[in-house]
């Protein structure tokens, strides 16, 4: 039996040998020119995906030009993650914004994918005014809007309705033109928890195993809103009402699983597990259906991608905090860890456009 003292003596000697061997190995590696890909393990790639996205951003959180513009407008930027998430200090959204400020915020959103503000004392109309700077708004047909303003959705969770947005998703993929982004404000905060996580859909795409990426490149799927109709029960809706809804709001729209961001031209992994029909995947080049088994396997492999902490940043809400995320660039996940307490957010969504995938938009970067 080895005593503790003997074990430690051997461990110290071994550590010296391991250290020397590693020093030699590192010196050899430094003499070689390695790509980012070669520096990361092949079997676990999220670190690689983030590094690639950061490199594409010029190895900086934000471009110099935008940093200068923000400073000139007296904004202080606090970045939450290396490739996504920026808390913007120095702005009171109760006051109207001029064109220059809106242009600057839009650029920060495009570069950082999700932006945040603290301590905003604004009413629903002012929230709508803020969101409207960035486009037209989308009303939400499956939740009643604010009494005064139908574009403001109150997302209320508490003892009788625990939080249920705790899965990675991008909003409203059942729409033909899913919302560009969402602006949400915290109205009631639970004493603990209730954070929202955001995941970088571009880094996710870049870090995806090559085989999976090649397999999914031309695959599209059908999305619908059956979950809101009560898939396994009536959900309180009569057959007549369900038919009426389906006759006015398209039920079943095809979107690509990889989406080209219409402004930055970057590719994002684009999937919402609640809305995509599990058997619906098909190859856009020949319309061939993949079949239920293959479709389900691909969807489950894709869903694992966002679920890797490297891609994420986490936002801790305070009363009055606002988050504005780009649905074309991030997924989000609302933690449901505050039962039986209440959490209330007010959300406004900004109209987007039809998702498309330009297969050449990222090829140059990936092979470069
Ligand atoms: Fe959501």
Count of discrete structural domains: 1
User: Could you say what the CATH topology is called?
Assistant: Double-stranded beta-helix
Structural class category: alpha+beta
Mean pLDDT: 93
| Biggest sheet details | 8 strands, mixed
CATH architecture, please?
4-Layer Sandwich
Q: Enumerate the spans where pLDDT stays under 50 for 5 or more consecutive residues.
A: none
User: How many β-strands, per DSSP?
Assistant: 17
Name the hetero compounds present: fe (ii) ion
Distance between the termini: 57 Å
Bin the strand percentage.
Answer: 15-25%
Oligomer: single chain
The shape is globular
- The H-and-E topology, N to C, reads as HHHHEEHEHEEEEHHEHHEEEEEHEEEEH
Rg for CA atoms: 23 Å
- CATH H-level name... which superfamily? Clavaminate synthase-like
Helix content: 25-40%
| The CATH C-level class name | Alpha Beta
Count the helices. How many? 12
Description:
It is a single chain. This protein is an alpha+beta fold. The chain is 33% helix and 20% strand. The protein has a single domain (45-368), classed as 4-Layer Sandwich (Double-stranded beta-helix). It contains twelve helices and 17 strands. Strands 1, 2, 3, 4, 5, 6, 15 and 17 form an eight-stranded mixed beta sheet that branches. It has a four-stranded antiparallel beta sheet with strand order 9-8-12-13, with no helix packed on it. It has a three-stranded antiparallel beta sheet with strand order 14-7-16. It binds fe (ii) ion.
């Amino acid at each position: 039996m080895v005593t503790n003292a003997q074990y430690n003596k051997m461990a110290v000697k071994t550590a010296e040998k391991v250290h020397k061997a590693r020093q030699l190995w590192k010196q050899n590696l430094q003499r070689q020119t390695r790509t980012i890909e070669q520096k990361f393990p092949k079997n676990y790639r999220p670190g690689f995906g983030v590094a690639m996205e950061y490199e594409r951003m010029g190895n900086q959180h934000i471009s110099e030009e935008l940093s200068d513009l923000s400073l000139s407008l007296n904004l202080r930027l606090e970045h939450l993650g290396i490739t996504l998430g920026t808390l913007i200090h120095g702005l009171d959204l109760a006051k109207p914004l001029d064109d220059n400020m809106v242009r600057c915020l839009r650029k920060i959103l495009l570069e950082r994918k999700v932006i945040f503000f603290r301590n905003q004392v604004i009413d629903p109309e002012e929230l709508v005014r803020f969101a409207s700077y960035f486009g037209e708004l989308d009303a939400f047909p499956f939740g009643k809007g604010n009494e005064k303003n139908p574009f403001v959705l109150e997302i209320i969770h508490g003892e009788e309705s625990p939080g249920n947005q705790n899965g990675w998703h991008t909003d409203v993929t059942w729409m033909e033109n899913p919302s560009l982004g969402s602006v949400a404000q915290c109205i009631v905060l639970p004493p603990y928890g209730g954070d929202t996580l955001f995941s970088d859909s571009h880094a996710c795409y870049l870090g995806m195993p090559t085989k999976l990426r090649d397999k999914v490149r031309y695959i599209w799927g059908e999305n619908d809103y059956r979950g809101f109709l009560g898939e396994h029960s009536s959900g309180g809706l009569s057959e007549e009402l369900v038919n009426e809804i389906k006759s006015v709001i398209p039920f079943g729209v095809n979107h690509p699983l990889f989406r080209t961001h219409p402004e930055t031209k970057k590719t994002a992994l684009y999937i919402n597990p609640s809305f995509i029909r599990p058997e619906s995947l098909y190859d856009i080049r020949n319309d061939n259906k993949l079949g239920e088994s293959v479709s389900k396997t691909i969807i489950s492999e894709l869903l694992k991608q966002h679920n890797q902490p490297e891609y994420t940043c986490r936002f801790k809400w305070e009363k009055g905090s606002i988050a504005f995320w780009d649905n074309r660039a991030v997924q989000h996940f609302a933690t449901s860890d505050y039962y039986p307490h209440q959490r209330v957010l007010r959300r406004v969504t900004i109209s987007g456009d039809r998702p498309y995938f330009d297969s050449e938009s990222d090829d140059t970067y990936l092979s470069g």
